[in-house]
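Practice record 12: protein with PBG.
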Amino acid sequence: MVLQTPSSVRFPTARMRRLRSSGLLRDMVRETTLDSRDFIYPIFVTHGRGVEDAIASMPGVSRLSVDKLAAQGRELLSLGIPAVLLFGLPEAKDEVGSGAYDPDGIVQRAVRELKNAVPELLVVTDVCLCEYTSHGHCGVIRNGDVDNDESLELLAQTSLSHATAGADIVAPSDMMDGRVSAIRATLDAEGRTNVPIMAYSAKYASAFYGPFREAADSTPQFGDRRSYQMDPANVREALREVQLDIEEGADIVIVKPAMAYLDVIARVRERFSLPIATYNVSGEYAMVKAAAQNGWIDEQRVVLELLTGMRRAGADMIITYHAKDASRWLRQ
Ligand code: PBG
């Protein structure tokens, strides 16, 4: 007698449609979840008072002044979104990005305001110099190039000033080599041993950052970021970047952008066990919004499908400008 092993079960015995035949069954066999608790909402903080300055290429997203943050934070919590990622637009820029590590800088003030007004909200700060340097690069310039090692001290000081202001997590996005260990060492030396580092480990030199650079006024004034951000063609290199950042002390790694890099998320997920975040960036948001405004796609279904895809690829958390809308839709 020949025993039938499960793998030899074929049509008509095996019918894939059986488990798709009702909503209840589909809910029961769903492999991936999407929840507002997975989201991190990016916020652009600007100087001034009472400012809510809409960003043209990112419909629904505005630059907010510090006094507007408490209300924003409360809205996010009410939607079930646990965390924000802060970016700062300083009043003035200089060659060495002083505004980034100024104890009274825009992000430092924003952190104090949020932790004071809405302490239950997790505050993540983007650590980078590009919004604060007159040349728009993510480090200091020496002989026409971004000087890696000299930039490390400034990034570490920036991280420390964020932690001192009360940041829950620091997220370096500059892509300098050795920044994670420089930041970890500085935080630890100052007693901030419990502040995690969420490293933008696999950050690609992407055209999808266009609307962000307009919003944050951080376009490089010469050249581009290809000598420090990754080549979009590479995935093994991303695994090396992640490996190095883990060895240097990263607690969470980021893959960025998301949509064109789902395979990178999946490869990182397969190889490493630490939490992964992905950044669904400004250009990805802008494309979806533009198509939706033209009536060419069903925004709600497209957004939830994209975010589900990022989770299915292996991301634990998603940094996304869609967070508020998606959270509302998920509650319906
Ligand atoms: C700063 C930074 C950028 C983004 C996040 N952090 C811009 C860049 O690297 O040019 C992009 C985020 C987005 O496009 O939404 N280095």
